[in-house]
Structure formats: C-alpha cells, structure tokens
Amino acid sequence: MSEPDKKEITPEEAPENGKGIRNSGNTSETGNRKTKGDFDLAAVYVSDAQYNRNIFFDTTPQAIRLYLLYNHWGFQILVYAFILVDLALAIFEDPAVVPLPIWVTSVIELVCLAAFTARLVHYAKVIPRERFWKDPKNICIFAIILLSLVDMIIYGALKASGFYAVRWSRVLRPLLLVNITEGRQLRRAFRSIRNALPQILYVFLLFMFSVLMFSLMALKLFGKRGLKTIEGRPYFTNYLEIVFDLYVLVTTANSPDIMMPAYNFSVYFAVFFITYILINTYIFMSVFLAVVYNNYKKYLKEEVRKLVRAKRHKMVRAFGVLQERKGEEEPVVSQACWNQLVRLVQPDISNAHRELLWSVSDDNNKGCIGKVAFVQLADLLNIQVIMMKSRPHPLKTWLPSLYLSSPSRLVCRMVQHKAFMYTYDLIILVNAVFIGLDEEDPLIANVEWAFLVLYLLEILLKLYSFEPRAFFSRHQFWNWFDTIIVITALIAMIINSALKLCYTSRQILDIVFILRILRLIRVVDNIKRLGGQGLPFPVVYYIFAMVGMELFKGKIRFFEANSTDPDKAFCGNALLKNSVFAKHNYCKNNFNNIVSSFILLLELTVVNQCGFTAVTHISARMFFVLFHIVVVIIIINIFIAFVLEAFFVEYTVDQSNLQSSLEKKIEELELGVKQYVPDSFLSACFLPGYKTVDGLLQRMFEADLDPENFADDEDFDPNNPSNLNFPNPNFDSV
Amino acid sequence: MSEPDKKEITPEEAPENGKGIRNSGNTSETGNRKTKGDFDLAAVYVSDAQYNRNIFFDTTPQAIRLYLLYNHWGFQILVYAFILVDLALAIFEDPAVVPLPIWVTSVIELVCLAAFTARLVHYAKVIPRERFWKDPKNICIFAIILLSLVDMIIYGALKASGFYAVRWSRVLRPLLLVNITEGRQLRRAFRSIRNALPQILYVFLLFMFSVLMFSLMALKLFGKRGLKTIEGRPYFTNYLEIVFDLYVLVTTANSPDIMMPAYNFSVYFAVFFITYILINTYIFMSVFLAVVYNNYKKYLKEEVRKLVRAKRHKMVRAFGVLQERKGEEEPVVSQACWNQLVRLVQPDISNAHRELLWSVSDDNNKGCIGKVAFVQLADLLNIQVIMMKSRPHPLKTWLPSLYLSSPSRLVCRMVQHKAFMYTYDLIILVNAVFIGLDEEDPLIANVEWAFLVLYLLEILLKLYSFEPRAFFSRHQFWNWFDTIIVITALIAMIINSALKLCYTSRQILDIVFILRILRLIRVVDNIKRLGGQGLPFPVVYYIFAMVGMELFKGKIRFFEANSTDPDKAFCGNALLKNSVFAKHNYCKNNFNNIVSSFILLLELTVVNQCGFTAVTHISARMFFVLFHIVVVIIIINIFIAFVLEAFFVEYTVDQSNLQSSLEKKIEELELGVKQYVPDSFLSACFLPGYKTVDGLLQRMFEADLDPENFADDEDFDPNNPSNLNFPNPNFDSV
C-alpha cells in the first residue's frame, strides 16, 4: 500500500475540523503535515477514479499541475470543438454542400492539426516519455496528423498541376475521436467489436458458405430455364450476380422481387427461397446477434471488473497519501482531510451535499473513516444528488391567513397529487386528437384556445402550490420546457388573432403544441443513457461516407421537381435509363455531398437498396456488402445487445448498494428536516441514478463484483508491465 | 436376465443376479411381494417422468392398462395423422388447389372428427371424470369437434340452398395440435407468448403512441405542401393513411419510398424520417426483443423448475411402489426390481445398456439403490446411448495375414484419422466450385467422373477399415446418406453416358452432388433442436391463411407467362391498374389457395409488402398490421430468444452432471473392453446429448435446480387443488 511520493503523517497533528490545515506552499516539505501537494495528488487520484481516467501521470508537483490543466473541462471542450470543425470540413470540401476555396479549408485544417499537436505535446509533458511512445493511441494521433499534412501537400500539388487527386486522409479524421484521451467509451465500443470478431468471422464464414451453396443450387435450378426478371434481364444465369442477389435477399431488400420469376414459373420453387430465408435471414442473423451479445456480455464484464479494480487502486493510493495512523489501529482519514479533499475534487459541491456524503461514509459518527469507506468516495461523488433549499412559499409570507386557509390547502394538495399529472397527460392526448382533426372547422380552431387556457391554468396552479424558485430551479427541465412552450403558444395565438394571419402561423402553433406532447416522453426517459453505445455509428458512417463520395460523387444528379431537363428521367446518368432506381425517383439518394451521403447510408442501414451500383463498375457492390457486414451485422447487433442488457438491468438488478444506503441516509436526515419546514414540497434530494454510462455499466455487473474484496488490488500493480498489456487495453496508460 | 412378466419378490429371496424370480399371475396380492400391477404402476410413473407426461390417471389395474394403451406410440401417430389429414383438407376445399366435391371432404372431416372423439373418450376413461371436465384442453377439443360439426351442417345447408357460406370453423383446426395431450411443447411456446403479453402490450402502447404522434407531426409538416407520391397520389394528407404508412415504415418495407417525396422537397425533412426510424425501428424493436427475451427466460425457468419437480415426484412415487425396507435402514430398490422395471419401461433396451445405467446408479456396487439414485432413472433413460457390438472386420477373419499386414494397418489408420475427413470436405468444396463453372467445357464435364471416383474410393476405404455392419448401422445417418448419394450419382452418370442423354440428366446429377454438400451441414448439426420452438408458426400461419382466404380469395388472378389476356397487366382486378403491385408482377402473391396463402404469409413475415390492400376495403389493412404484430413482434422474437438462449447454453453451460457421470462410467468400462477387442473402431457408446427439447431446457437451467433437494417435493401434493391451478398450467392434468 505504499505511495509514489507520500509524506509522513502523524495522526495527532491532523486538525479535527478541516479548517486549520496550513498551506505550506509548493515546497515538498517532509514531516507530519500534509502539504498542498499531497492534497493535489490525492484529489487527482480521486478525480481520476471518479471519471475512470487511467493516465499514468508523473507525480511531481509540476506534472500534477500540468495534469490538472490537461483535464480542465475547457481544454476538453476545445479538443472536441476542433475535432468537430475538422470533421465538418467535409461540408465545404469537394464534393461540397457549401463550396469553399481550397485555401480556406486547408487553413482551417492546419489550425485544427496545430491544436491536436498542442494537445498531444501537453499530454507528453504529463506522462513519462517512455510511456508516451508505448501507447498506440498517441502514435495513432501522431500518424493521423502527419498523414493529413502529407495528404494536404500532395493534394495541393496535384490540384495545382491540374491532376486528379483524392483527399484520402479524410477517412482518418473520425479516428481522432477514438484516440483522444476522452474517447474511452468509444474505444470500449470498438473493443467489444474487435473482441467479438473471431467468433463473428467463424459464423460469417459458415453464413457465406451457405449463401454460396444456395447460389450454386439456384444457378443449377433456374439458370437454363430462360426466365426473365421484371426488368427483362436474364434471371439467375451468372454465378456472381446470384451470390449478390441472394446476399441482398438476406437483408430482405429485394424480397419478394427476386423470387417472383421463379415462383411465377412454378410454385415449388418457392420452397427454395423459403428455405433460404429461413436459414440465412432468420437462423444466421439470430446467431450473429447471439455471438455478438455473448461476447459483448463476456468482455464487458471483464472490462468493468478491471475498471473497478483500477478505480479502487487509485482510491487506495489517495487514501495512502492522506492516511493517519493512531498507534496500532487501522489507518484512517479524518473528516477535516476528507472535507479538504472533496472541496478540491469538486469545488462546486454544496456544504449540505458534502455533509450528506460524509454521514454516509462515516456511518457511526466516529469523525474519521477507514480505507473501505474512503474508497467509496469516487462512487458517491458519481451519484447525482440535487440539494434543494426548502423555502416557504412567498404567498405564505405575504398572505399567511389566505394561503393557509383550508380551501387553499386543498388546492395545494390536489395539485401535488399524482392524479393532477395524469389528468394533464390526458388533456395533452385529447389535444393531440384535436390537432389531428380537420382544422378548417372554426369550432375546432376555437378549441385550441380552451386547451391553451388549460395549460396556463396548470402552470399558474403549480406556481401557487410549489415554491416558484424551486419550480424554476436549474434541474427542473420539464417545468422550464412547459412554461416556454405555453408562453410561446400564447404569444403566437395572440399575434395570430390580432393580425388575422392566415394558416401558416396556425401551423407553427400546432407544431409548438406537438412539441408539448414530447413531455409525455418522460416515461421512456432513461433511453437517453443508451446514447453512449450508439457512438460507433458516426465514426463508421463518416468513413463510409468518405469512401462512397470518392466512388460515386457526381454519378447521379438530382433535378428539382419543376425541372424540365430530359435527363431527369434517369437521374442524369444514361446507365440508369429504365432502372427501378430512376423510376422510383431515388435520384436524391446519392453520394454527391456529405449530407446526402449520411442520409443514404442511414437508408442503407434500414434497407440495403443498392440500385445505383449500375452507374459504376460491378465491384462497387462490395462497398454495399461491406457496409452491411460492418453496420448491420456487427454494430447494430452490439446496439441491440446493449439495449437487451440495459433492459435486463433496469428490470432485474436493484439499485446499487451505495445508492440505497445514500437514499436511506437521506430519508433519515429528511425526517429531521421535515419537522422544521413542513411545507417543503420537493423532497430535499433527487436521485436520478448514476450520471455516467460507466456508472450504468458498473451497476450492470455489480452483482459479480465484491465491493469489500481488496485482495484483487494487492496483486494489481500498475508498475508491473504485465498489467499494461491487458488483452483489452482499457487503461489509457496505467 | 429375468423376464418381462416377473411377479413376486421378497428382498430375502431376491437373487443377486435377477434370474430366480417366480411368476405368480395377475393377483393384486398385498404384503411384501410386488405384483405385476405394482410393476405396471411403477413403469407408468417412470415412463411419465421420462417423457414429462403429467396425466393424473386412475391407479386401478384396468385404468393403468387403458392408460398404457393410450400412450402407445401407434395411437399417438394415428392422432397426428388424423390432424394432418384434417389440416390438409384445406388443399381440397374451396378455394382449392385440387378441388374435390364437398361430400368427399365432408366425409373425410367426419372420419377425422370421429377419430378425435374416440381419442377423447379413451382419455376420459383413463382419468377421473371430474378431472376430465376441469381440464380446459379437453373442453377445447370437445368444443372444436362440436363447432366443426355445426359449421359443416350450416355450410352444407346454405350451399344446398344456394347462399353464400363461410367455413369459419377451419380456423379452429390448428388448435387441435395445441390441445392434444402430446402438444406439450406447442402449449409451452404459446404459454411463453401469453406470459410475455402484458409487458409486450405496455411497450406496444408506447410504440403505437409514438407512431401516432409522429403521424400527427407528419400531417402538420407535409400535409399542406401539395406533395405527390411516386404514383401521383397526394402525399401525407390523410391521418389514418399516414399512420398506416409509418407503421409499414417500421417494418422497413416501404423505405425509402415513403420518405422520397419529402426528401426531394427539402433535405431537412430527412431528419424527421431518420428520427422516426431510429426510435421506432431500432429502439422499440430492440425493446420488444428484450421484453420477449426477458419474459421467455423468466417463465421458462419457472416451467422447467415445475417440470423437474413433477418428474421427481413421479419417480418418488414409483420408488414408493417398489421400495423394500430392511429393518431400520433407508428404503431401497433391489437390482432385480430395477431390472424388471427398466425392461417394462423400455422393452427394447439392450442388456449392456441396462447394466451400464445400473452401474451409474449403483456406484458402490451394493446391489440396491436408494431414493436419490432411483430418481435419476428417468433422466438416465433420456440420455441417448448407442451400444455398438465390437465385431472384428470380416476381412480379418477371412484373410488375417493380409488384413493385419503393416500396409493394411497404415491404410486403416489413415482412414480413421481426422485429416481424412477434412480432406474429403475439401474435395467436396472443390467439386462445388467445378459445378459452378461453365459446364459446356468437355474437360470440366469429365472432371465430374474424377470426383465420382474419389467419392467411391472414400466409401470403399471406409468399408475396408471399418466393420461394414457398424458402418451401416441404424444410427450412422451420414454414412447411409453418402453411400446412397454416390451410388445414385454413379448410376445416373452411367445411364447418361450410355444413352448419350442431353443436358437434363447432367443437371439432375449436379443436384445430387449439391445434396452431397449438405454433408458439410454437420457443423451446424444441433440447429435441428431449435425446431421445437418454431412450432407456433404453422398454427398461426394456418389461422391467418384461413382468414386471408376468406377476405381475399379470387380478388387477384395470376396469368401464365404466355397468356395474352389484357387483364394480365393488372392481375385481373381493375383496382390494381398502374399499381406497383401489378407492375412488379406480384400477381401470384395471392390468397387464392392454401399453398399460395402460406407462401404469401412467409413473404409478409420477411417484408410486410401489402400492395393488394387496394383490392378490398381499406380496413383489410388491419389484417396485415395484426399479422405483423403477432408474427414479427411476438413469435419471431420468441424464436430469436430461443436461439440466443440455446446458443449461450451451448457455449457456456457444461454437460449435465448426469451425462458426465455416465460418460465417466463408460470410459471406466471401455478400458476393460478395449483390452479384449483391440480393433474396435467405434467407441462403444455415443452420447449425442439429450434426445428431447425438454432435456435441453432442463440442461439450460440445471445450474439453478438443486438435484439433491427433495424438500420441494414434500410440499408438492398433486392432490392439492392449489397445485392444479398453476399460473401456467404446465401439468396436463396432475
């Protein structure tokens, strides 16, 4: 349990209330006192544990200060902003949505690259040199910056001399998102993909074998019968075409078209396609999901276990820095030290919140806590606790006799009852029905006024029965939302009737009301936590969009509805004459710029319609097959696996132990609070669960993780190189 | 050893080797001796436990004999045959594939109904009267028979007087499959659907709410813009149409068509559709899967637990009938009794197999077994053990010097090596490639001969190195398969070259070879066990086919390719003029007979294309929505859930304890056997896992079931009515 640069502590001198701690400057004084440097170091450990950062920083005071700066939220936002700008350059580069001259985009890109370089240099200053070059992430970023520069120079030179040039380095840009220090969750998602790959590959080979065999059978069964497709082409005569068609059938995109010629010829041939769909669409796709889900669960558990071990290890280090030993007893940390530490880690924490956390940690009021209780701190800080000041309603102060009268009390009780909420949910639903009805009828138009009055009444009633400052506090998102929506609607309707405006403003009004219906979304509120796992999508989409744009840009043109160009009938490409693609007016589904590329890729995710492979060489179909494999077979299945797992956690796992002990404590304390402030309408604390995806993950597997078991930590030595080479390099650089 | 009709045993008299048992006739003598009635009763209990039958039969000797008859495999096959005939009547009834006069189908149906009635009466004789009428299954069958009769009379009368009539009772026919005593697995599948319903309903309401809200937004966003669909109809102007279109978008069937008009108008509208697809297709569909999977796991575990409890209870009863008590000791069953019992339960069991099972049960060679070991019997009998007689190769007897020479031994070792199998797998793959190549080339045609010779060589080599009777034993399916395929191919090729036949017979030959490729399927051999869970499909499909046929029969006509009828352009229905349905030549996708109905429903499962709702009232769309809800949202998800669970079991759960102890025992015994028969080429026993789906299910949850815990059984009283009303009536009539 020794520490990198821990100083000596004697418990006698540690002050009891945390106020008497002397700052001893930057000198790394030895002796019995804890220096500012010690607290900084401990705070960094706790903060790293809290946010699951695994950076092996230098422990010299200078390096720690640099490291604190590196972790400053401002710099983190700046990095993301520069990456966003870098990625957004695709909008302005050829093929562009909004064309800009090359020199403008190049300058912007250079600025971005400079920023990434600066960040990388900063990181290199924080961690030891040899560790910096051992980390593949740093090498990756370095390579991306270098390759981008090389590509820019080559591209500029080629363009200047009039040659055809490709900005190939653009596919590397989204990889920055994966490799920056903050991209932990994204890396985890990619790791779970990589871990599932061997098994997916095995099933995929079986699957492809099945597709190839069925194609062979199809060739033998249908090839010589002279059947024609609906477009008049020969049906199932070329082996590779059959393979592609049957592969697309797995995505169900060309069902039942691909089967119709054979089915029209003989009803028995339907058996072939039914068997094919049963085996390849249903069984194989389910097995893909099973493989991905199985691997996902297995490796995620392992990663979370490592995460928790690393977290504990950091907390033990922080404890080591701050511990005091009284004689033969177990080392402890005093409340004063603890307070100082928490204020350093989370400067904006309120005193009440901090005291609550202390009372949870120091359950027996001993004034100091041992290692086990101290280690909880990182998790405790991750539980979102909203402290509310319970103030009396202003009306109670101004008109106490009226506000405390029994009719007034009845109103307050009614509004605070759950039925009030449900009543208004119902009113919103009825409103939705009226919006759907024919609005030409003046009666129905007037009903809108009635609804508006009802909504206004709701807000006023709530303001009457709840304390207004609490009602409009920072965390009451839906209250703000409701109020803004209703006031906007009120203003819009008044303007509308005052100016006798025509239909358009009515329409805006309707949309405002429909937005209000979003309020009902709160029932599925925790879907947002799933967001973290969807992250691989943008990275993969961006890469495919870049490649797709180089392959297909300008091959298909979109004509406005009022265009009379004769090329409109075949999307400006004679190869598409009479194709289903052109007939269905899909011309806007093209790779002509980044926006339409993204929309097209989303369409391809849903249904792999790839009509326009006709415009280029047949091998471009590989692009669509590859996209299907990567996005539908792998990433969507990981997404589904996460939904399944999160759902099971929601339904089967109880609250975390820590969260329930915190809630218990709050209830205990509240009991006391309530006696003094009888009309506090909001419970003093809200606990909407863990703040972070990491927290959710930890909760998922908490049942398997023994919170008291420190034996693991003993054999976890971050300086041991074997721990640096996890099969899944979860720790950024520990 | 002893004979099937053995009578009294006194433990003292029971000889150690089971040969001296005296027969004492059919008297139901009491006392220390066990009568034939006792053995019959015990055998029925064991057999019920083995096959998880839960029928509360009378225990009088007459009832037991009737019950044994009821369970006779001949009667069970007859019942299935009659149900199959009854279901197949749909082929001959109007709208018919092969029309038969009404009187013919009616007579056949009457015969079937008579058979079902006879079976029901037989069942009523076996179990107590009051239990018979308490069982909803019996009432169900009774009602189905009665309603079918009523329907036949009404239909006949209406037809005779020239009115329009509907054979509505046909939708009830598949319910027979669910309600017969043997339909346990099907009932379990339906129960798991029913159990998931409340949660599915909740998610479904949220989902429909989301669809309705998005439709409302779509109406407001697009309704007044005067957009047109590709077919020229107004785009998104009618609320109900929008709801339907957006519902279909969830199935991805009309993507991207439904989005194109809005997307062509403005690129920003794509955001609406992307949000919609993300929420409703991906998130909601994943949540449906999660809900179904979660419920599936939960209730299946509960059911398997009950199944195991009931099985143990029956085995304890059988033990109670046969037990002997020596003084103060625990009651036991002697080997002689046990042998007699096993022979009664499984008359075709070999002596070696029975002795193996005994040696597993009586691990310490005490000559008798206690309750715990006895209860295992039902599971032991369910483990498939194939006993092989190890005979010397005939060539060894005829030409020992040649067969035992070292080159001959080398050949045998080579053929028995795994590499031999892989080599031939590779040869089959190469053959597949050659089949895919252009067969006009005479060289390639001749290559076929080479492959045929290789395959013949393989079979001859195997016959040389393996004992021929063992090679062609009953359980060696793939050996039979290979041999038949190769010999068929040989005969076909000889005839082909002798008669100089043209292409057609070559094609047959190719198909024969492709069939051979099926041999490679053995890698995914255990997929067949999934069959049990797919069973709900036929029942649901049949019901939907019946309803669909009444709704849509004759509305769409299919014209042969060479037809010149002008109606061909719109499938014989003017309402389909210029529709996408007719343009794509989907006319054969209709409900005109049971075969095309089934194929169409399968297509609807894959992609819910419902183009021909145009031919009838718009409310017929409900049929398609309902089909999607029932089949895609519920049944397919249950299927996927089963695949997921079975996959996890395959990869994570080890063999059952019983199975491994059996295998250990076999290894012990084999060691002795091998010394005497050194050239036995097949291991004496194969253990291809559990025979039944029930066995697989039990293995899935074995970890949670304590095999030694009999406490459960004590409080499980089959005579207690509360045990008769399980929330899931898993026990047929216990």
Automatic annotation (TrEMBL), chains A, B:
Keyword Membrane: yes
Record's GO cellular component terms: membrane
Compositional bias (Basic and acidic residues): 1-10
Bilayer-crossing regions: 73-92, 98-118, 139-158, 200-223, 235-253, 265-293, 419-437, 443-465, 477-499, 535-552, 623-649
InterPro entries linked: Ion_trans_dom, Volt_channel_dom_sf
UniProt keyword annotations, A-Z: Membrane, Transmembrane, Transmembrane helix
Bilayer disposition of the protein: Multi-pass membrane protein
Compartments reported by the entry: Membrane
PANTHER family hit by this protein: TWO PORE CHANNEL 3, TWO-PORE CALCIUM CHANNEL 3
The protein, known as: Two pore segment channel 3
Organism: Oncorhynchus mykiss
